[in-house]
């Protein structure tokens, strides 16, 4: 099983198998895992049989990273699997979910894309993480160079929707912002070693 950043992992238990001792987790993180035992794979080096993961709380500031044993994996949900996932009827009125309808239409021509952030987390887990001000985080998976003209057209189509749509591009070398790619000569590539300032994201 190849785990990638943004993948969601459902934990099989909340005891043992942590490189961080349970008592070292912030109280909000412990509470969050009790409510929903899901964590997200972080962009960091793996340590043997341990996976870099992050837990999210109710607030934007509540994020905590640590490591878990692969033996704690109960289920893995990739962003791509969430393309056709839908919120509950009671939550569909939120701007982010209304925006998602149009996002799906616009991305029909894209072969591999998925959903991350609060939208992806709620679709995967059912936990109400999306707020009225939430963005829609889209992940495009690319192996070859991007046509800048097409990318700018995509950004323009997504730029006039109810909620902000943030697009990141995942490559085998790391991840970058599609907006920065289209507007700057040099931009940040997020890698497992940390951010790098680059000009060509599809070459080592």
UniProtKB/TrEMBL annotation:
Residues 5-79 form the Phosphoribosyl-dephospho-CoA transferase MdcG N-terminal domain. One of its GO terms (molecular function) is nucleotidyltransferase activity. Residues 91-201 form the Phosphoribosyl-dephospho-CoA transferase MdcG C-terminal domain. It comes from the Bacteria. InterPro entries: Holo-ACP_synthase, MdcG_C, MdcG_N. The keyword Aminoacyl-tRNA synthetase does not apply. Transmembrane segments: none annotated. The keyword Nucleotidyltransferase applies. Keywords: Nucleotidyltransferase, Transferase. This is Phosphoribosyl-dephospho-CoA transferase. It comes from Priestia endophytica.
